[in-house]
Amino acid sequence: MIKKILLLGSGELGKEFVIAMKRLGQYVVAVDSYEGAPAHQVADEHEVINMLDGAALDAIVAKHNPDIIVPEIEAIRTERFYDYEKQGIHVVPSAKAANYTMNRRAIRELAAKELGLRTAKYLYASSLDEMKKAIGEIGIPCVIKPLMSSSGKGQSYVKKEEDIEPAWLAAAKGRGDSTEVIVEAFVPFTSEITLLTVTQQNGPTLFCKPISHHQVRGDYQESWQPAAIPEAFVEQAQQMAAKVTEALGGAGIFGVEFFICDDGVVFSELSPRPHDTGMVTLGGTQNLNEFELHARAVLGLPIASIDFIRPGASAVVLAKGQFRNPDYEGVERVLSERDCDVRIFGKPEARVNRRMGVVVAWDKVGTDPAVIKERARELADRITVVEKR
């Protein structure tokens, strides 16, 4: 049962995943591009490489000879995963899933053209002139996203012509190894949700209660569970999530994002791993949090059911300056309150608007999750990231 797991990407999501794996007795090697990443602090071993360097990635795989490779970020030479699978290494959820979902072009083509899912109108561009032409066809307002990025990096909203060039420059900083962007029509949604979808090696696909989230700069700020949407829309989202995850194959948790509109559900994006908005499940909203679900699915262990326990919310703690050796003021004030908890990620360097921690809060069944969300935000705002003296 004991497996050696190579975790590619060691941020806050990876850290919680390692904790879940260690509770199941597994051996984890955590990899990231900088020393002291959150998952480095809890793994059995760690490595520092540029995961966009295929030769470096091959060398790490050869060195550790893992049973399982688990990607946590997009910026990886995922085409190497096909070779690793041929070597007998289990890639999570699968090499195909990792390749498709790490690239917005591949997943959008699969969802819209092969599976016929409802998506926003979109076009691609590989230069500023091409982007201007695409915007002319899509119309303003629209959204600009790098084809390869994570957690909203490089994403911009174009509300007027003056926003076009800054959006191209922002995408250039966030696009990783890709030279393209996707120009996406703005969807007049009433809310956005994440549907955590669990595929199993030897069991049915399972769904968590949908999670609402609020984003700024394309990055999540608060999430709350369950989302207040009609049951018919929940069923639509489940059907769409089941289609796309079945097409991708493999076992693990997928964070499937949707826009909720007056007339139904629109597919947005998909991540083949625990989702940042799913950190709300650390507040005991379910019998198993998203990281425990991912760990079980990856290992082929049974998941009898996903049971909703109580409503909850999460709110991120952001840095307001740039410095090394961060410290945190106000944690005691938050933890003096009932029905809440704090996770400090342990990142060694603060940058403006970088996620450094999260507050989770919960309440009894029947409480409006949006109210809990406001409480979580108020508590998170009590914590200040400062330079350690």
Explain this structure:
The protein has helices spanning 12-23, 54-64, 81-86, 95-101, 104-114, 128-138, 164-174, 231-248, 290-299, 331-335, 369-380, and strands at residues 4-8, 27-32, 45-48, 68-71, 90-91, 122-125, 142-146, 156-158, 181-185, 191-199, 206-207, 211-216, 219-225, 252-261, 264-271, 312-318, 323-324, 326-329, 340-344, 349-350, 355-362, 384-387. By secondary structure, the protein is an alpha+beta fold. Helix 1 links the parallel strand 1 (4-8) and strand 2 (27-32). The chain starts with a strand and ends with a strand.
Distance linking N and C termini: 45 Å
Helix-residue proportion: 25-40%
Strand count? 22
> Any low-confidence stretches, pLDDT <50, length ≥5?
none
How much is the radius of gyration in Å? 20 Å
Structural class of the secondary structure composition?
alpha+beta
| Strand portion | 25-35%
List the helices and strands and how they pair.
Elements: E1 4-8, H1 12-23, E2 27-32, E3 45-48, H2 54-64, E4 68-71, H3 81-86, E5 90-91, H4 95-101, H5 104-114, E6 122-125, H6 128-138, E7 142-146, E8 156-158, H7 164-174, E9 181-185, E10 191-199, E11 206-207, E12 211-216, E13 219-225, H8 231-248, E14 252-261, E15 264-271, H9 290-299, E16 312-318, E17 323-324, E18 326-329, H10 331-335, E19 340-344, E20 349-350, E21 355-362, H11 369-380, E22 384-387
Parallel strand pairs: 1-2, 1-4, 2-3, 4-5
Antiparallel strand pairs: 6-9, 7-8, 7-9, 10-11, 10-12, 10-14, 12-13, 13-16, 14-15, 16-21, 17-20, 18-22, 19-21
Helix pairs in contact: 1-9
